[in-house]
Amino acid sequence: MVKSKFSLAIHWQILIMLALGGLFGYFFPHLTKYTNWIGDVFLRGLNMVIVPLIFCSIMTGVASVGTAENLGRLGLKTMGYYILSTLLAILTGFFFVQMIKPGIGADLGLQVPVEEISAGKESFGEVLINIVPVNIIRAMSEGNMLAIIFFAILAGFFVTRVGEKSRVLLVDVVNAILDVIMKITMFVIRFTPLGVFSIIAKVLSQQINSGNQVGEIIGSMGIYFLTVLLGLVIQGFVTLPLLVKFMGRADPIKHMKNMSTVLLTAFSTSSSNATLPVTMEAVETKNGVSNKITSFTIPLGATINMNGTALYECVAVMFIAQAYGIDLSFGQQMVVIFTALLAAIGSAGIPMAGLVMMAVVLNAVGLPLEGIGLILAVDRILDMFRTAINVYGDTCGAVIIAKSEGEKLLV
After folding, report:
1. Residues ≥6 apart with Cβ < 8 Å to 330
2. Any domain includes 1
3. What is the CA radius of gyration of the chain?
4. Total-model pTM
5. Residue 43: which domain range?
6. Domain count, the chain
7. Does some domain include residue 275?
8. Whose CB has fewer CB within 10 Å in the chain, the N or C terminal residue?
9. d(CA 35, CA 124)
């Protein structure tokens, strides 16, 4: 297929279709019933790839960690840091979204069927028990994400405990399936502009039909944007530097200056994977981290250490619940935190991967996927910021682990 020299980058396509969808929903709300099917198909496409993407990515990720050199000490340190930094990011986002409450400021008039809300009404104890699936095939067909993630972690762990021949075969097969699923995922994401047009037009027409003011929607979205941005700023300029300072015993200011090119690359590409070569080179040459530490921590971090994505998913899900007027129970809020952590681990290092993972967290607490339409307007811009935080968290981890191994660094 010949690529047109006039083709636009997908983020420009999304912004254009966002504006057109808003105009269409505002001026022709009675016609949106003819375009709603586009958004429905797009959301079904996202749902279609969630289960195989989550299962394969987590299983291969755990399997690769289990066979890494020096896994015992180095692996535990690395995984411990990644879980700690990601959990701190989620709790930061959770704190700000609970304090600011961006979805409650305006009456958006959104409604969700009672049966969908009740689907997520389980006690925290029941949630923990149901993580262990009775039937994994049934869990996959029903989209029980916590059970799927649990089984994927278990499968990935025990893949490393079988014979070498079986282990290599299984990892190769699952990696091959993951490659195909990633291609399908990127194919679905290509239709995001059309999905944005349909969903935004539908949401806006609903507001107009219910008598709500467009200004209220824009104002609520602006507060949501600032809430996510505030959380990312705290994570990037307070939490991570403190971890470098006290856990890594290094100079966080000098480290951040050394990573300036890496952060700009991550910000502009919105891809942890695309930034990977730049990240590894900068960590080794500018910080003096050994190749042994760099080659283990940075690629692994680009796969499972998603500080910014986890924070964003937590804030976005809580915002969607607030916008729909749904009061999540304590157990459901714990599920949001836990699922955001696991979904961030399973998130691919590609642009807009967080959009796919968002559906995982929404499903876990019974919130409607249509809520994604509320955040699409600013998702692409936030994607750039959260990717920079994702990559910066990886570089901080490399410094901390290297220091713990007794290496003498340049920071």
Report:
1. 124
2. no
3. 21
4. 0.70
5. 10-404
6. 1
7. yes
8. N
9. 39
Q: What is the DSSP string of 120-186?
A: T---HHHHHHHTS-S-HHHHHHHT-HHHHHHHHHHHHHHHTTS-HHHHHHHHHHHHHHHHHHHHHHH
Q: What angle, 0 to 180 degrees and rounded to 10, lies between the N-to-C axes of helices 145-159 and 164-189? A: 140
Contact 150, 358 (CB under 8 A): no
Tens place of pLDDT per residue across the chain (411 aa): 444 455 676 667 877 887 898 889 888 888 988 998 998 888 788 778 878 877 887 787 677 655 544 456 777 888 889 999 999 999 999 999 999 988 775 555 455 443 444 444 455 566 678 788 899 999 888 777 778 878 887 888 888 888 888 988 998 998 899 889 878 877 887 887 888 788 878 877 876 666 555 566 677 788 999 999 999 999 999 999 999 999 999 999 999 999 988 888 888 777 777 687 788 888 988 999 988 788 778 877 877 788 998 999 899 999 988 888 888 888 888 888 888 887 777 665 555 666 677 777 887 777 877 777 778 777 777 888 998 999 999 999 999 999 998 888 888
